[in-house]
Amino acid sequence: MNEMLKAIQYPTIEDIKSALFIQPHPDDNEIGAGGTMIKLVQKGIPVYGLTVTEGRGGSNVYPPEELAEIRKKEADDAMKITGVINLGCLGYHDNNPIVHKKLVEDLVKVIREVKPDAIISVDDKLENELHPVHLEVGKAVREAYFRSGQAFYPFEDGYKHEDAHKCRIIGFYFTEDDNTIIDISDVYSKKRKAILAHK
């Protein structure tokens, strides 16, 4: 009976062997899961951070191109504080709008390259989530999690992708459906420092 219960339990943070945190904007990972990222890094496992958009639309002071460069540096600084491996930014913005199919394919490429055990991102099913980029990214992450293990995806390629990779775990921060609460009190000051790297 214990073996059967063990087989149907969802994985815990202790089970994660490597993780990819995918953020819509350059500061979402630190705000939503900075403590969790730090705790995973402290376990000695590879923890990756990927940003989808440049975050160039959030200022009434800096022009978009200048803001994008500032936020790129801030994201790099924040990931250095947390110990996360920065995979950079996919480069989406208003002039390069998110198209669901293209974003899923871009995410699948990254997943297959780093082969994470777990993928963690924003929850597009959060009832009061209104930010269109969070909604788009959350939805694309769900599909990329599913598609990355399909060897013939993208199907129009017409060949088998030998690097297909099925992640074991998908998780969400900014969610109402939490099944795991992680005590980050011992790393909270470091999380706060990472958040404050985003000026």
Q: How many individual helices?
A: 6
State the end-to-end distance: 52 Å
Tell me about the biggest sheet? Answer: 5 strands, parallel
Note the run of SSEs as H and E. HEHEHEHEHEH
Number of strands: 5
User: Uncertain runs with pLDDT below 50, 5 residues or more?
Assistant: none
**Shape descriptor:** globular
Structural class by helix and strand composition: alpha/beta
Sequence of strands across the biggest β-sheet: 3-2-1-4-5
- Which range best describes the helical content: under 10%, 10-25%, 25-40%, 40-55%, 55-70% or over 70%? 40-55%
Average pLDDT, all residues: 93
Rg (CA only): 17 Å
Percent of residues in β-strands: 15-25%
Short description:
The protein has 199 residues and is α/β, with parallel strands linked by helices. It is 41% helix and 15% strand.
Can you describe what's shown?
It contains six helices and five strands. Strands 3-2-1-4-5 form a five-stranded parallel sheet, sandwiched between helices. The radius of gyration is 17 Å and the shape is globular. 41% of the residues lie in helices and 15% in strands. It has 199 residues and is an alpha/beta fold. The protein starts with a helix and ends with a helix. Helix 3 (64-82) packs antiparallel against helix 6 (188-196) and helix 4 (100-114) packs across helix 5 (132-147).
